Each structure stands twice: as structure tokens, then as C-alpha cells.
What does this fold into?
Amino acid sequence: MTALLEVDGCTKRFGGLVANHDVTLAIEPGEIVGLIGPNGAGKTTLFNCISGRLHADEGRIRFAGADITRLGADRICHLGVARTWQIVRAFGRMTVLDNVMCGAFGRTNRTSEARVRARRLLDFTGLAGHEPVLAANLTLADKKRLEIARALATQPRLLLLDEAMSGLTPLETAAAVDLVRRIHAELGLAICVVEHVMEVVMPLSHRVVVLDHGEKIAEGEPRDIVRNELVIRAYLGDRYGAGR
Amino acid sequence: MPALALAAAALIALALPIPLQVAGYSYFVTVAFLVILNAMLGVGWNVIGGWAGQFDFGPNVFFAVGAYVAALLAVHLALSPWLGLVAGVGAAVVICAVLTWPITQLRGHYFAIATVAIWMIAQPIGATWELINGSRGLFLPLRPATGPLDAVVSLRFPGRSKALAFYYVILVLFAVTLVLLRMVDRSKLGFYFRAIRDDQEGAEGIGIDSRLYKVIARSITAAVFAAAGVVYAFWALAVFPEQVLDLNWSTFPMMATVVGGIGSLWGPVVGAVLLIPISQLMGATLGAGPLAGRGIDLVVYGVIIMLVAALRPNGLLSLPWRAWGRRLVGRRR
It folds into this structure.
């Protein structure tokens, strides 16, 4: 069995703080994995290590068989890992179309081709009407959507979504969940979602990985995870754990 | 409308110096030469400063590289300035890439400080290096052109025609620069530069090697500065370190860019057309008066920049020109 992404014993420290401790997980091609955990559990740090924004202090990260532990973010993106950001990083002074074209330029040098690909993804993500708008002037929901379109334009095999739904209204959240489902169904990508909102992650994910204080405390199918005592403790405190 | 404005600007640029020359005001033709020279430097600086968003305070180093390389080749090998142009631009690009690669790890103010440091290091080198005659300077060999063709090939123009001829030389070079940079602006390079400016981490996350593209951006800036430096050397007929490394070759293009509109292709052109005549004409008219040599033109620059920064931080080009133009045309109908 060769997984698409293999994280093997990843440890990341910031001075005395251990943000990730010996985290091991794998993502199969075409799988949706939910990565959950309380605030400060180390979810974003793990994303940063996978996407090359940070480098793990210990452990190995492999993507499609290649060791990417020490590679820079741009190299990892070229190999087929794309991500979005918890705090949006849209190119504010560029138009929506230009933002997505920047992603498409990762796979082509021709402006006309990049434009065609970008337009296709704007249609797919429902942003076609906003083409000439400056990214800075979009709503938060549309900015997050734009980041997804831009990430898809790099033609990834694995998409890392860092809280793509936080801060959205219930209606916007439903639309975002629908978009993730369509990315999975129509583009066949493997997706890893970091999310706080349980009602979003549970129905969406095939498998859920739970982090707490930088360590993996549980992994399994969503319906098992919601009954897992360690998980309940991590989220709600000891008082709500069974047997007390 | 922009096509009309472009055609009008091109027509003025082509025709304006002729009546001045005929009337014997070749000084004003020289002012026009300096306007275009600074406009060219401005659009060059705009690539690293405006598009890629990295404040480069020492691009004049490459102005000097261009001037020195072409002058050295003319002095020692009697090489044509046009071949000197190719060599000067090539040398500037290589030197810029080597010098810029390590400092692209720095960001914001620290990058800016590093570019200033490179300029400061260049000054004593220019003043003491024997190969380029140190502070004694390099003098270009004087010999009259054998005919009009030789005049164009060797950039030697007799007497009063010199000002006009050099004006058209820099105008052609400027036009070529604009066409090439417009292509850069619309290509992958232009998109990547602006992506890095807006969010470096975001850019790296979608596969952009920010370091490489910063080096490319600054090397394009260096190429433009070097090309202008070559023309300047043959115009001045001598190259002195304190002259080609003068801070003004950095600050005037930068001010022109900021006043005209940073990040847009034509912003620096608008800024140069406004600022350079002010400096030249004030220098000329106050020459004999009590304010002579007091840098009063810099005071005026300061006021203009403060006004632009306070009222129109995106530069004069961001004013609603299109609406004004439409209103003007509508009224006439």
C-alpha cells in the first residue's frame, strides 16, 4: 500500500513549545480526511510542515513516494500539493481572474492558456461573475472560494483546506461544503480539511484524525470518533468524559 | 480613449523638440532628453519597486555599470556604443543577479537597506579602481563622424544637432523598453511579480519561487538602467564615478514613479514629464538669483510628493482621467 501522502513521526518545536509531536498519518488518493482538534492542537503547524511553509524538526513527509520533508513550498506545490490559508492570502491588489491565473501559470507559460484554465475554474467555483473585481473587495466567503480556485489552478493531487469554512454564515458554509464535495466528485482529488465545526467535518470526511496538544489522539471513521472518549475529553474537558 | 492619448503622447514626443531646435533653444531639447531618460529609468525601477513591490534604492549602480562597460569597450577596443549597449546590459544583468540573490532573503526595509549598502560599496570601488581610471574618470575618444550613417553607428553628432539626435536615440530606446516591459507585464513574469508583492507566502504556496522571481525582476530593472547609462556616457562623453553613481539616478526615477503612479506602466512617465522640467527649469531660472544652488527644486519636489501622498497616494495616473476626457469630448459636441 502506497499512500499519496505519508507523514511519519513529524515533530515540530517552536522554542520550548512542541506544536507537533510524533504525528503519523497517511492520506490515500481520492480520500477526504478531516483533521480536527481544539485550538492550538497543532493542525495548522502540521499543514505548514506538509506544504513546506515550515520544516519538521524530526520525522519524514513523503508525497507520491518522494521525500518532501525539506523542500520549499513552491517545489512541493509543483509536485501536486496545494493549500488554502486559515487567514486568507488572496492577492488583494489583483483581480479575481488574475489571482487564479497566477495559480494556472504553475503549469503553463502561456498567458492565453492560463486565462482559459482560470476561467474554467472560476466557473467551477461559482466566481465567474466576479472576474474583474479586485480580490481585496470580495466578501470573506468569496475570498476563501477564490483561494480554492487558485489552489485548484495549480492542478494538485492533494488539496489542503485550512479552515475553509470558519467565519462563514450557515448558508455560505453549506455552499462551501458543496464545493468541497464537487471537487472530490468531479476532480477526484484527495482532500484534507482542517475544521473546527464538527457538523461540517463529520459528514464530509471518510476518515478523521484528531490532534490534541500536538499529538494524534485518535483516528477513524467519523461515527467512531464522535464516541471516542479521548476526543470528547479533549474537546469538552474531563468532566464530560465517560465514567466520571 | 487610451489609444488616442497614447497616439497624442507619441506625436508630442516626436514633434516637440523640432520647433525648439529650429528656434535655437537646444537647452530645452536637452531638458526633453533628460525627461525621457528619467522616464525610462522610472519604468525600469517600477519593475522591482512597483510590480514586485521590493524597494530598491540602489539601481543607479547598474546605470554606472552600463556607462562604464560601454565606455571601457569604446576606449580600449573602439567598439560601437550599440555593441557597448549589449555588453553593458549583459554585464549589469549578471552582476545584478549575483548581488541580488543573497539579499532576496531580506524583506521590506531590510531589502531596501541592502540595496543602499551595495550602492555605498560601489562608490569607493568606482573612485579607486585603476581599470576604470578611478576618480579621474574615463574620457571617450573624440573623433568626428565620417557621415550620417557613422554618426548613428558611433553616436557622434556634430555641433548643435547633438542635443536633438540624442533626444531621438533615447526616445527610441525608451519606446523599445516600453514595448518589452508591456510584454513582461502581461506575461507569467508580470503576474508572478505582482503575486509576490501582494503576498509572498501565498505566492510560494501556489508554486512561485519568490527568490528567483525577485532576482529576475531586479535584473530587468538593472538592464533598463544599464541601457540608459550607456546612452548617458556617450552623451556626456566622459564617465566619472561620482557622476554615474549620483544618488539622483535612483531618487528621481523613484519620485517620478511614486508621483505618477506606482505599479502602472505609464505612471513613471507621467511623473518624469512633471518633475524633471521643474528641476531643470528652476535650476536655470534661479541660476543668478539669491536662491541659486540652494536646492530649492528639492523643496518643490518635497511639496509635490507630500501633496500626492496626502491626496492621491496611488499617483496622478489614478485620477479619473477617463471621465474627464469623456466630459471634455461631450462638451465639445
User: Anything to note?
Assistant: DSSP finds 16 helices and two strands in chain B. The CA atoms of residues 127 and 133 of chain B lie 8 Å apart. The radius of gyration of chain B is 20 Å.
